[in-house]
Amino acid sequence: MPLPIVHINGFPGTGKLTIARLLVELLSPFNGRLVHNHLLIDPAGAVLPRSSKDYQRLRHAIRAAIFDTLIKAPDTFDSVYVFTDFQSSDDLGSSVVGEYESAARDRRCTFVPIILSCAKDENLKRLESKERWLHGKLTDTALVSYILDNEGVHKFKDHPLQMELDVTHIEPMTAARLLYNHVLKVCIDLNAGLGKEAITDTK
Questions:
Q1: In terms of Cα–Cα distance, which of 114, 104, 85, 87 is closest to 176?
Q2: pTM of the full structure
Q3: Which of 37, 38, 72, 176 minimizes the number of CB atoms within 10 Å of its CB?
């Protein structure tokens, strides 16, 4: 059975990438691999402006190529894949998250959706980090403030494996350990492989 796909969804500046990197380190016994959202966004942005009617179609094609590999390539089966993303609760965002869930189903692996949230003031503060600027990430506080006030992050209504975590007052490593524990708990194949003693203490 191929190992799970973990999808971390949250607003820009929440801390998804920092936490995901730490989570992947914790998942090293399962060959944890990180595919952060800019690996999928930047190739499309290099070719087309976001205003182009073909932009979302290109984004879809890039995702489809990645998912096809995860479904068909045996060399991916022994790795847990952690994706970071920002998808809103509108029709487009819900459709994109549905692609991840469908890919996991076709891969015949567990799909673990995770929602990260953060208080607005702290979220906007984190946008100003040097790392975001160096990596060409969104740093427009006015735009993100508008998004925070007018859009919701996609959440499944009744997904049994979904986890929601408010990271406003949580250090990244603590957050990563909480996510790791959740993944081990809901992915029986992983938990059975390591044993209870491997579950990380989050205190």
A1: 114
A2: 0.88
A3: 72
Residue 151 falls inside a structural domain:
yes
- The 3-class secondary structure across 64-106, one letter per residue, is HHHHHHHHHCHHHCCCCEEEEECCECCHHHHHHHHHHHHHHHH
In a domain, residue 42? The reply is yes
| Cβ-Cβ contacts under 8 Å for 107 (sequence gap 6 or more) | 2, 5, 70, 71
Say if CB 15 and CB 170 are below 8 A apart: no
- CA dist., res. 203 & res. 190, Å (int): 22
Show Cβ contacts of residue 124 under 8 Å, excluding neighbours closer than 6 positions: 13, 141, 144, 145, 148
Distance CA(87)–CA(38), nearest Å, equals 13
- Count of structural domains within the chain: 1
What is the rounded CA–CA span in Å between residue 102 and residue 99?
A: 5
Q: Which residues of the chain fall short of a pLDDT of 70?
A: 129-139, 192-203
Q: What is the pLDDT of residues 73-91, one digit of tens each?
A: 999 999 999 999 999 999 9
Tokens coding 112: 């673990």
CATH code for the domain of 154:
3.40.50.300
Q: Among 82, 66, 110, which Cα is nearest to 20's?
A: 82
